[in-house]
Inverse folding.
């Protein structure tokens, strides 16, 4: 059976998806990157290979996320695409006519505005991590509650508690202050969800016209408290697609499919790459005062990719 | 001979080098801003200051270490803290053991006497006024060719057949202009440079997007401060048009404003009726003009915490909607990681391409937002 592979290498998680040509997800994987994207990609590929039916024929592969170039050269991707386009493509597959995509991941959050199926505007958080999953993670572990219970706890709140949302430092000191004053935990958590949403809409969503249908995706979409806070703030229903956590990878797989249809053949190297030795190294160029930090990736003993140069000096492999 | 240096803004140093030499000074060429520059700059500047101040602090420290005794820079016009940077830099440098002289040139149209006095201070060779004027004219000629060559690369780069060739050729021809001295030599070298860039093999069938670049002058003119935005866009098949060049800025601030600058202010008037400092008004005005000229998008670049550009950015949201032109803003700081920027730039280029393709197929003008 014909299928397409999509890999989204993010700062916090690495997601891999195998998409059937009919659009159905055959296998999906959400693993932590843990600062070691190379290992995450290799172990993820090996794991996904075990999940798919043996007769699956990968006809194309795509990569996205901040580690897209690394993943792209490793697997032989047909398309290496930025996360914004990938998320927009995936959202339109599940919700045709979607007009706003809210995406909150580990280190970044973005908003994509679409009209008649094309992206007309987008924004990403620039200078602040307050509206992202990492901050929620950090607060959950400070309060010693599993992140998976966060949303349900927020929903059980009856009394709103106001938490400052502009900056993680402000938010945390507000939370501690309110907790020492004796506010209930679930009210504080709900306050945090509202603060996050307020910060997101003010910072990332500033000046954007958010119209229904609104799709909410990314790891944080698992949090029912945030979803409810969005619905209250926007006064619009929020759709969470079934595969909300791996939408970037689905988008990459879909883009690979479009690319292969144009190009005719795939460059995907096959799942065998999971068994090949890869290593990375880095050095300072020293060719000019700029002293670029060059990173290289080796497959066996051959350099297959280089990054970080500001000129063409290192372009030839 | 007094040892003179000045801020580095793109390739303009080639012109100032010649001019300062002619006036009888030894020139310390400021190095291209790099990691060391940033380290010095961040360490010795106020934390909340903007990137241009920090880069200049770093550059001055590097040139002082190379023996510079006099620093020549320009003041600001309008309410922007850059107008105070010369004085601030003098204090910073003195406090860390570099008692150099900083000569701040204000716009001659508002400070004519001050201008002449400062030219005299730099006239170490005691040239006659007439001879000084000749030197300035030659420097101006060189600056014009440097700007024209750069403009030419903006057109050639997105269309080049061999990736990177435009940049390589550009590096080479800059040296020709650099070594030219007399009027005749400068013209010959300049024309040869333009012809050579024009001759870079081009793929005329390629679909090219056109993007206008607006924002604060320093981050616009020094590629090292904006993560080489123009080159990045060029490599993605985008022809850029930068709204600001040193020659244009100088024209507007020496004698009287050019008609081009006046129409920019006119365009901005419904949104910003007065000068708000820096280039806030120009940013808005140029964006509107780019939309009228059929550009596919606009990129705004500004130093993080730059008030005039923050005001402009907020207004650009409305301008973008009312003039249906996509606008993307980059606030630049000491970050050197390019990943975040290239993600946004690629997505922005995708957005413009898809919009253009749809516009072509439907034949109707698409309303953004």
């Amino acid at each position: 059976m014909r299928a397409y592979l999509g890999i989204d290498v993010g700062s916090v998680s690495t997601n891999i998806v195998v998409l059937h040509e009919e659009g159905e997800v055959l296998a999906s994987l959400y693993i932590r990157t843990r600062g070691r994207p190379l290992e995450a990609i290799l172990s993820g590929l090996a794991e996904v290979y075990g999940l798919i039916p043996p007769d699956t024929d990968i006809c194309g592969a795509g990569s996205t996320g901040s580690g897209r170039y690394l993943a792209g050269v490793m697997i032989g991707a047909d398309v290496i695409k930025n996360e914004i386009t990938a998320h927009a493509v995936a959202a339109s597959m599940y919700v045709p006519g979607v007009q706003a995509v809210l995406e909150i991941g580990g280190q970044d959050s973005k908003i994509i505005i679409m009209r008649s199926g094309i992206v007309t505007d987008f924004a990403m958080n620039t200078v602040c991590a307050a509206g992202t999953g990492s901050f929620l993670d950090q607060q959950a572990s400070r309060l010693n509650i599993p992140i998976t219970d966060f949303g349900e706890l927020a929903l059980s709140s009856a009394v709103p508690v106001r938490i400052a949302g502009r900056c993680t430092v402000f938010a945390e000191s507000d939370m501690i202050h309110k907790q020492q004053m004796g506010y209930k935990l679930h009210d504080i958590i709900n306050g945090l969800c509202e603060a996050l949403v307020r910060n997101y809409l003010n910072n990332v969503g500033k000046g954007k016209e958010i119209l229904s249908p609104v799709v909410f995706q990314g790891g944080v979409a698992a949090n029912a408290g945030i979803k409810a806070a969005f619905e209250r703030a926007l006064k619009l229903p929020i759709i969470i697609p079934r595969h909300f956590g791996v939408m970037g990878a689905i988008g990459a797989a879909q883009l690979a499919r479009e690319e292969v249809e144009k190009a005719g053949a795939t460059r995907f190297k096959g799942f065998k790459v999971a068994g090949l030795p890869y290593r990375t190294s880095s050095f300072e160029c020293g060719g000019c005062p700029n002293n670029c930090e060059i990173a290289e990736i080796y497959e066996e003993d051959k350099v297959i990719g280089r990054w970080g140069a500001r000129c063409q000096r290192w372009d030839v492999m | 001979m007094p040892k003179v240096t000045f801020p580095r803004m793109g390739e303009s140093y080639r012109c100032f080098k010649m001019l300062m030499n002619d006036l009888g000074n030894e020139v310390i060429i400021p190095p291209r801003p790099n990691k060391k520059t940033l380290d010095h700059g961040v360490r010795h500047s106020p934390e909340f200051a903007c990137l241009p101040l920090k880069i200049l602090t770093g550059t001055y420290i590097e040139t002082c270490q190379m023996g510079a005794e006099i620093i020549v820079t320009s003041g600001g016009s309008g309410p922007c803290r850059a107008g105070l940077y010369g004085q601030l830099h003098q204090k910073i440098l003195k406090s860390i053991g570099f008692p150099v002289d900083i000569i701040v040139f204000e716009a001659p149209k508002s400070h004519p006497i001050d201008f002449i006095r400062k030219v005299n201070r730099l006239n170490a060779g005691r040239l006659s006024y007439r001879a000084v004027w000749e030197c300035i004219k030659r420097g101006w000629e060189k600056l014009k060719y440097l700007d024209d060559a750069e403009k030419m690369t903006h057109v050639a780069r997105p269309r080049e057949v061999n990736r990177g060739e435009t940049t390589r050729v550009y590096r080479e021809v800059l040296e020709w202009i650099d070594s030219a001295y007399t009027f005749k030599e400068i013209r010959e070298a300049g024309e040869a440079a333009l012809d050579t860039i024009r001759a870079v093999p081009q793929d005329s069938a390629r679909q090219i997007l056109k993007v206008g670049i607006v924002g604060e002058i320093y981050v616009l003119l020094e590629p090292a401060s904006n993560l080489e935005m123009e080159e990045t866009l060029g490599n993605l098949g985008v022809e850029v048009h930068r709204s600001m060049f040193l020659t244009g800025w100088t024209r507007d601030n020496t004698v009287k404003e050019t008609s081009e600058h006046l129409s920019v202010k006119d365009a901005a008037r419904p949104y910003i009726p007065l000068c708000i400092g820096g280039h806030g008004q120009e940013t808005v005005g140029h964006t509107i003009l780019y939309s009228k000229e059929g550009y596919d998008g606009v990129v705004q670049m500004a130093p993080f915490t730059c008030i005039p550009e923050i005001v402009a950015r907020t207004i650009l949201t409305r301008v973008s909607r009312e003039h249906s032109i996509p606008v993307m803003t980059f606030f630049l700081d000491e970050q050197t990681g390019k990943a975040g920027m290239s993600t946004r730039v690629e997505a922005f280029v995708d957005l413009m391409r898809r919009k253009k393709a749809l516009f072509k197929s439907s034949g109707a003008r698409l309303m953004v937002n």
User: Anything to note?
Assistant: Chain B has 15 helices and eight strands.
